[in-house]
């Protein structure tokens, strides 16, 4: 039976699938099919598909029923995927073990199952884990056509920000100069370099920078990406006035680095400032801090105010996109 499908070149398949998934348009009753260099991705509502996609009628195979952790447990567990690692966030160790066993018994593929054992801590923003299944906390995470090798035991990485990272990368033009001030293993920096930008990526975590350099090679962008281990405040003098775009993804603390951001900014520079703020005024404190650091040397204009996700009760993880223009 023919069903509506988005037809897309194979190399664009993962990015397309993610966009359709974010819009809740995937038809999970039929398989994604490859034919003659194209992917056919079944969808539930052809009229809701963005206009830049091609929708065709196609006859994909019906998806065979698979056993899920929910089928085994009798309730729907909460977890997230990072490469071949399944991450739980359970306060009860016995419940965590029960869920891990169900994941192993299900058709869900996973090499490792871990449970969060601490909050994010320290200036390197890492946490402790209880490893319930498997023996390695390393994995390769794939996101919008890029691969990131990482170890969750030594670096911070959030798969929940994939759509937000893609939003930024889609704005980047070839030959831009992008400075990622808190780069981690490169989820902003590497796609930016792949988009044609010249990228400088800095991080305080030595392990993250090692993975960043490896991932630059893995994604064939090492010729356009300079990875630096260290505090960005000690690096900035070498790049004074250099950046066309600054990524400041260090919620809770990024405001403390705005003087450094202004030093890095060129005559015109777009700053993506990530922050955690109360729902009553999610963007005001960030904008006030930018103005205090940049004015009167720069004119400050808000480009976009974006709530990325809920962070805690009455608190949001937000992004403030601000353009600085030399006065």
UniProtKB/TrEMBL annotation:
<keyword id="KW-0963">Cytoplasm</keyword>
<dbReference type="InterPro" id="IPR030382">
    <property type="entry name" value="MeTrfase_TRM5/TYW2"/>
</dbReference>
<dbReference type="InterPro" id="IPR040601">
    <property type="entry name" value="Trm5a/b_N"/>
</dbReference>
<dbReference type="Pfam" id="PF18093">
    <property type="entry name" value="Trm5_N"/>
</dbReference>
<feature type="domain" description="SAM-dependent methyltransferase TRM5/TYW2-type">
    <location>
        <begin position="79"/>
        <end position="326"/>
    </location>
</feature>
<dbReference type="GO" id="GO:0002939">
    <property type="term" value="P:tRNA N1-guanine methylation"/>
</dbReference>
<dbReference type="Pfam" id="PF25133">
    <property type="entry name" value="TYW2_N_2"/>
</dbReference>
<keyword id="KW-0949">S-adenosyl-L-methionine</keyword>
<dbReference type="InterPro" id="IPR056743">
    <property type="entry name" value="TRM5-TYW2-like_MTfase"/>
</dbReference>
<keyword id="KW-0819">tRNA processing</keyword>
<keyword id="KW-0808">Transferase</keyword>
<dbReference type="GO" id="GO:0008175">
    <property type="term" value="F:tRNA methyltransferase activity"/>
</dbReference>
<dbReference type="InterPro" id="IPR056744">
    <property type="entry name" value="TRM5/TYW2-like_N"/>
</dbReference>
<dbReference type="InterPro" id="IPR029063">
    <property type="entry name" value="SAM-dependent_MTases_sf"/>
</dbReference>
<dbReference type="Pfam" id="PF02475">
    <property type="entry name" value="TRM5-TYW2_MTfase"/>
</dbReference>
<dbReference type="GO" id="GO:0005737">
    <property type="term" value="C:cytoplasm"/>
</dbReference>
<keyword id="KW-0489">Methyltransferase</keyword>
<protein>
    <recommendedName>
        <fullName>SAM-dependent methyltransferase TRM5/TYW2-type domain-containing protein</fullName>
    </recommendedName>
</protein>
């Amino acid at each position: 039976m023919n069903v509506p499908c988005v037809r897309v070149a194979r190399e664009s398949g993962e990015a397309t699938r993610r966009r359709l998934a974010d819009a809740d348009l995937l038809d999970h009753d039929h398989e994604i099919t490859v034919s003659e260099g194209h992917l056919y991705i079944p969808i539930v509502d052809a009229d809701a598909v963005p206009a830049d996609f091609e929708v065709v009628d196609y006859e994909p195979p019906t998806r065979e029923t698979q056993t899920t952790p929910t089928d085994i447990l009798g309730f729907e567990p909460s977890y997230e995927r990072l490469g071949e690692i399944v991450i739980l966030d359970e306060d009860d160790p016995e419940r965590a073990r029960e869920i891990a066993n169900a994941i192993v018994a299900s058709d869900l593929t996973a090499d490792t199952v871990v449970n969060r054992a601490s909050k994010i801590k320290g200036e390197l923003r890492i946490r402790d884990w209880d490893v319930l299944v498997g023996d390695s906390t390393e994995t390769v995470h794939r996101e919008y056509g890029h691969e990131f090798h990482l170890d969750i035991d030594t670096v911070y990485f959030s798969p929940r920000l994939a759509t937000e990272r893609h939003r930024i990368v889609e704005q980047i033009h070839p030959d831009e100069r992008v400075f990622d001030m808190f780069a981690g293993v490169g989820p902003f920096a590497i796609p930016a370099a792949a988009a044609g930008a010249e990228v400088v990526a800095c991080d305080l975590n030595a392990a993250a920078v090692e993975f960043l350099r490896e991932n630059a090679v893995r994604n064939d962008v090492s010729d356009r990406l300079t990875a630096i281990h260290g505090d960005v405040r000690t690096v900035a003098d070498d790049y004074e006035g250099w950046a066309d775009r600054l990524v400041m993804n260090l919620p809770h603390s990024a405001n403390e680095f705005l003087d450094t951001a202004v030093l890095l900014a060129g005559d015109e520079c777009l700053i993506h400032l990530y922050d955690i703020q109360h729902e009553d005024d999610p963007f005001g404190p960030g904008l006030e801090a930018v103005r205090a650091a940049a004015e009167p040397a720069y004119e400050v204009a808000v480009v976009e105010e974006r709530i990325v996700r809920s962070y805690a009760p009455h608190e949001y993880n937000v992004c403030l996109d601000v353009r600085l223009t030399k006065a």
